[in-house]
Write a structure and sequence with these properties.
elongated, Growth Hormone, Chain: A, mainly alpha, 218 residues, 11 helices
C-alpha cells in the first residue's frame, strides 16, 4: 500500500514546527546582542518583552485558531502562518528600533501559534490510521531539529567579529519561503474538513492522492 503522499504532506506541514523551534532557540542567542545595541542593561522589562512577545502572540492566536480553521479550512491558515513567518523575518532583519522589533516578534508569534495549533490537527486528518501515530511525532521532531539548527547557526555567528542579531532572527524568512510554496502548491485541504462541509467529491480526490489508490472507501 502506498503511503508516500501522506508522508510527504506530513513532512511538508511539519516545517511550520521547524520554524517555531528555530525561532525559539534563536532569540535566546540574539537577545544578548539586542541588549547591547539598544542599551537595555537597565531595562529588563523591555528585554523580557522582546523574548516574550512572540509567546504572547502565539497564545492570543491559539484562542481563536480552532474556530477560524473550522470555518475557513486548515490549509488557508497554514498559508497565513507561512506568510506571517516571512513578513516577521523581513521586519526583524530590518528593525531600526525596539518598537519595530516588538511588532515583528508579535507577528512571528501569530505565525507560531497557527503552526503549532494546526499542524498536528492537519497531520491527524490527512494521515492514514496505520501510520497516524508515527506521523504525529513529526511536529515534535522537526521542532527539535529547528532548535538544533538554530543553535548551530548562533554558535557559528558568535565566533564572528561582529555578530548581527538582525541576521540571526531575520534569516527565518528564507525557509519560510519554502514553507509558503509548499502550503500553496503542494498541501491539499484536509479531507476531514472537506467532508464536514459536504464536499465529498473533493475529499475523495484528496484521499486518493494521499493513499495512492483509487478505492478509499475503507
Amino acid at each position: 500500500m502506498k503511503m508516500n503522499g501522506a508522508v510527504l504532506v506530513a513532512v511538508a506541514a511539519a516545517i511550520g514546527n521547524l520554524l517555531q523551534g528555530w525561532d525559539n532557540a534563536t532569540i535566546a542567542g540574539a537577545v544578548l546582542y539586542i541588549k547591547r545595541e539598544f542599551h537595555l542593561e537597565s531595562e529588563p522589562t523591555i528585554e523580557g518583552l522582546i523574548v516574550a512577545t512572540s509567546l504572547v502572540g502565539a497564545t492570543l492566536i491559539t484562542t481563536c485558531s480552532g474556530p477560524i480553521s473550522d470555518w475557513l479550512g486548515r490549509r488557508p491558515l497554514l498559508i497565513i502562518s507561512s506568510v506571517l513567518y516571512f513578513v516577521s523575518g523581513l521586519v526583524m532583519l530590518w528593525s531600526p528600533n525596539v518598537y519595530v522589533l516588538l511588532l515583528a516578534r508579535l507577528l512571528d508569534g501569530f505565525g507560531i501559534g497557527l503552526a503549532v495549533t494546526l499542524v498536528p490537527v492537519y497531520i491527524s486528518e490527512t494521515a492514514p490510521p496505520e501510520i497516524r501515530g508515527l506521523l504525529n511525532t513529526l511536529p515534535q521532531f522537526t521542532g527539535s531539529g529547528g532548535m538544533f539548527l538554530s543553535y548551530c547557526m548562533v554558535f557559528g555567528m558568535s565566533l564572528m567579529e561582529a555578530p548581527s542579531w538582525r541576521v540571526m532572527l531575520g534569516v527565518l524568512f528564507i525557509p519560510s519561503i519554502i514553507y509558503f510554496l509548499l502550503t500553496v502548491f503542494f498541501l491539499p485541504e484536509s479531507p476531514r474538513w472537506l467532508v464536514s462541509k459536504g464536499r465529498m467529491l473533493e475529499a475523495k480526490k484528496v484521499l486518493q492522492k494521499l493513499r495512492g489508490r483509487e478505492d478509499v472507501s475503507g
